[in-house]
Structure formats: structure tokens, C-alpha cells
Design brief:
Blueprint lengths: L6 H23 L8 H23 L4 H24 L10 H18 L3 H20 L1 H10 L5 E5 L7 E2 L13 E7 L4 H16 L5 E7 L9 H9 L5 E4 L3 H4 L7 E6 L2 E6 L1 H6 L2 H7 L1
Parallel strand pairs: 3-4, 4-5
Antiparallel strand pairs: 1-7, 2-5, 3-6, 6-7
């Protein structure tokens, strides 16, 4: 049976192969979906997926390879335009985290084309470049995530904000009262955030090791529509944390510029002094720098 005379058969088989690759990806990386390491680890898979998929389409469906190439050229071009938009036109967008994955996808596809055209050294060079991007992304993901979310690597900032408009309540329903000359270290989380639960023990340890009387640690829940009454506090009790917990109003996170979870905010005398992820907060000894400066 000629594939040239049965384009529909080609179309179906190509998509079945593609779904098989995606299924393999889910089997390998699926258990990590929802965790931070899933995103950078996916770089390697995108690189190899589109390299192997390009070779497969060429060798099995040579007559239809031109259509595949046209489709991929359009898709890669649109994705790279999207990367440019996110990097240079948007400010602090979680979609930035997909950019290295998109680059690895493009490199894998281009490496496949070069291999087919017998430019094997260049093809290997592109694959090595993709592996390098993936390795840097995996090992330095905490800083990528920090920069993508807040456009700063250290997290140190100096933004004025009125605390009168920042409303939180404790488990008894009492409204929190802000005090002057106190450094409030707030860890923002929500009930569907797996990464938040991963980082929570570390934040609890910061609280228990704290020796500064003017530094207060608190876990601030961002309420979701599906959350039930006292749900956040019950989760904190189950986790066994000793950090005081609070629930913010639905717009509290946006007031403080929180775009990803978990995010740590350090507030002092109507100023935001730190906004970022847990790793820059810990690695930079942020509290010591702020309190002792």
C-alpha cells in the first residue's frame, strides 16, 4: 500500500507515534507533574523527542516529510516569537519557565534536519547545546524561576506599600494588626500547591531558629474558590508546622505582587524589602542582611 495515495493513513499513524512519545514522557516524568523539578527535566525530553520524531517521519514517511517540515517550521517560528514576547514585552510571567523547553524543542527539530542532510557534526553540536541548556536549567532552576517571576535574582527590592489595605485573619477570624519596626516574613501558599508543601518544612525551620525579637515568620494562605472554611488551618495542623498561619483576602497576593507560589515576602515599616522564592531567601541570608544592616 502506497503512503502517497493514502495521506489519511499517514496522518493517523504520525499522530499515533507522536502520542506514543507523549505517553512515554508522561510515564518517565509524570510522577513529578506539579513539582518544580518536572519543568526543567522536561527540557531533555523535548530535545530527544523532536530529534527522534523528525528522523522517524523522514525514514518512514519520506513522501510526506515536506508537509511535516512546513508544519514544524511554522510551529517553531510561532513559539520563538512567543518567547521574544514573554522575555521582552511581559513583566514577570510564569510562562517564562517554558522558554528553555521551547529552545530544546527547536534544537531537537533542527538537529534532526541536519542529521538527515548528512551534516552530522552540526547535528551533534545542536544536541550538545540542547543538553547544555537543559543541564544549566536543571541545576540553576531556582534562580531561573526567581528571575522569570520577579525580574530579580536576589529578590531584594525596596517598594513602598500601605499596610492598612493589607488584610489577613487568623484561625479565630481575628484581623491581624501590623506593628512598626517589625520584619514580617510571609510565606504565601495555597491548598493546591505541591511545591508549597515541599518548602514548608524549611520555612518552619527558619521560624524555629529565629532569634530576632523583631522578626516574625508567618504562613499566609491565598484562598481558592474551592477551599472550605478552616481548610488551610487544618492542612497546617496536619503538616505539624509551628509557624503562625493566616488567611489573606483574595486580592492580598496581588497587592504584594505575588505571581507564583510559594513566594516569600519580607515587609517592614510599609516597605517590601524582599519578594522571591525560598532558595534566594535562604542562600542570601536575607534576614541577617536586612536586620543587621
Amino acid at each position: 500500500m502506497s503512503y502517497a495515495k493514502h495521506p489519511f493513513k499517514v496522518f493517523i499513524e504520525v499522530w499515533l507515534y507522536f502520542l506514543l512519545f507523549i505517553l512515554l514522557q508522561l510515564m518517565v516524568l509524570g510522577p513529578g507533574r506539579g513539582y518544580l523539578w518536572y519543568v526543567p527535566a522536561d527540557c531533555y525530553f523535548q530535545l530527544l523527542l523532536f530529534f527522534m520524531f523528525t528522523l522517524l517521519i523522514y525514514h518512514r514517511y519520506n513522501i510526506s516529510f515536506r508537509a511535516y517540515r512546513y508544519f514544524m517550521n511554522i510551529m517553531v517560528t510561532l513559539l520563538l516569537v512567543y518567547c521574544f514576547k514573554v522575555l521582552f514585552l511581559d513583566s514577570g510571567n510564569i510562562s517564562d519557565l517554558a522558554i528553555p523547553n521551547i529552545f530544546c524543542l527547536a534544537l531537537g527539530y533542527w538537529a534532526g534536519l541536519l542529521w538527515i542532510r548528512q551534516y552530522k557534526k552540526w547535528s551533534v553540536a545542536l544536541l550538545l547545546a540542547g543538553l547544555l541548556i537543559g543541564t544549566v536549567y536543571v541545576t540553576q532552576f531556582k534562580y531561573f524561576s526567581q528571575f522569570y517571576s520577579y525580574r530579580t535574582v536576589t529578590g531584594l527590592i525596596n517598594e513602598g506599600i500601605g499596610t492598612d489595605s493589607l488584610v489577613m485573619t487568623d484561625r479565630n477570624g481575628d484581623t491581624f494588626r501590623w506593628e512598626p519596626d517589625v520584619y514580617y516574613v510571609m510565606d504565601f501558599w495555597h491548598t493546591s500547591c505541591y511545591a508549597c508543601f515541599q518548602k514548608m518544612p524549611d520555612f518552619n525551620a527558619y521560624h524555629e531558629r529565629n532569634t530576632y525579637k523583631n522578626v516574625r515568620y508567618m504562613l499566609v494562605n491565598h484562598p481558592l474558590n474551592r477551599d472550605t472554611l478552616m481548610m488551610a488551618f487544618k492542612i497546617l495542623d496536619e503538616k505539624g508546622v509551628t509557624v503562625p498561619g493566616y488567611t489573606g483576602t483574595p486580592n492580598l497576593s496581588s497587592q504584594l505582587g505575588v505571581v507564583t507560589y510559594p513566594t516569600i515576602i519580607v515587609l517592614h515599616n510599609n516597605k517590601i524589602l524582599f519578594r522571591g522564592n525560598a532558595e534566594p531567601f535562604a542562600d542570601g541570608n536575607i534576614i541577617e542582611k536586612l536586620v543587621l544592616k
